[in-house]
Amino acid sequence: MTSKVRLLFICTGNSARSQMAEGFARYYAGDSIEVDSAGTQPVGVNPNAVWAMNEVGIDISHQSSDLLDGKDLETFNYIVTLCGDARDSCPLLLSHVESEHWPLGDPARIAGEPSEVIGAFRVIRYQIERRVRNLLRQIEAAGA
Fold it and tell me: CA 127 to CA 144: how far, in whole Å?
């Protein structure tokens, strides 16, 4: 029996981008893979990320904002960093770990009117959804 593929999303605060990526991956992959996320300096799940994901029917309010140091990176098959800080903070990985870097802007840093803030979350949400779906197709094609 082969073990499930394990996928980890990492960003600095583990509050928005990695949380949305985790939510999309869980939604689209179901139980076929194990999905997790972590941050180099976790600050909690951003309420705007929860709202933006609820808008497309995905509830991430139950997800936790975890510290990267608490994860055994060698147990993951795929690791995706979503910001430069996370990429730079990630230790060298073993050859069996596939890694990708998605340099996406942090919607949590957008200041302005509520409509501008949620607009930024929507833009990043759609970018993340597209990338997650592509990654899941790659994982499936690899026979993992």
Answer: 24
